[in-house]
Amino acid sequence: MTDVSADPQELAEQIRSLGQELGFQQVGISTAQIGEHEGRLHAWLDAGYQGEMTWMASHGSKRTRPDELVPGTCRVISVRMDYLPADTAMAKRLKQSDHAYISRYALGRDYHKLMRRRLQHLAERIQALIGPFGYRAFVDSAPVMERALATRAGLGWIGKNTMLIHPRAGSYFFLGELFTDLPLPVDAAQETEHCGSCTACLDTCPTGAFVGAHVLDARRCISYLTIELKGAIPLELRPLMGNRVFGCDDCQMVCPWNKFAKPTAETDFNPRHQLDQATLASLFLWDEATFLSHTEGSAIRRIGHERWLRNLAVGLGNASTSIPVIEALKARREHSSELVREHVIWALQRHGQMP
Fold this sequence. Notes:
Layout: H1 8-21, E1 26-31, H2 37-46, H3 66-69, E2 75-82, H4 90-93, E3 101-102, H5 111-130, E4 135-138, H6 146-152, E5 157-158, E6 164-165, E7 173-180, H7 200-204, E8 210-212, E9 215-216, H8 222-228, E10 244-246, H9 250-253, H10 280-284, H11 288-294, H12 304-318, H13 323-331, H14 338-350
Helix pairs in contact: 1-5, 12-14
């Protein structure tokens, strides 16, 4: 544990100010324990709700015990950064079946590198104040229970849709952490939730992925199906996905707390390549070189061109029958990937076309 000769409370306030200067909307400090969240994770895993995300069960207890992941950790500095793009009219896109719906967080540049750089800068600014100390920065990059830690740092509560919700900012924000050996004073944990009797998020899920409040069966979640699932999307779920081709925001869109969500000031999170306006057919015609070029620095690139086409084929199968839709599908009917071909054939059949 690093010795802090300066007043710990004053240092904590300086860290919050530095975090805000670096573009974080909130900074909170917690101990390195997650409390009851450890048992909840084990129950979720035991039920098999993680699907193919085997990494959720990896690393033993390091995921739930930060001081085992990074020995010497006694405090976790949690931060949040708003990402909601302004004026995307994405809710309207869900009603335009020939347009692609891409989750709002993925419309701009990938947040991982941006936030990790900011956290690194935060650590460097702290070092300038007190000298060397032990730390490690995380942004969805290691076995870290970031939402659990964020509640312990007072950044909000975990809602019925499993998203972290802040009473004055909703849930459209990213989280990051600095594990540190600084013996800082901790913030008051968020002990209560404020969802009340509202079940809007549970009721609106297109695929019925919520087993109940706070329990998501990832195997039915569109975000899982379009991003994490490696193989074919289950037949019974394809018609329910509509035009959602990368992620899903439905359970956030209907959350009453998101009326307080503010547009981001980060220009890197603004939509790129008109992804907030593109049609399914136009995106489906991207060859791999175009896909790689247009998704450089984007979270979308992680799924690769093959699964990008798989997802778009499902969207096209759910679109209104039109010449552009049919022609786009036929252009991929002989694609080299069996995975793509299977979804294209399904989509053509949805439009009454013989494969």
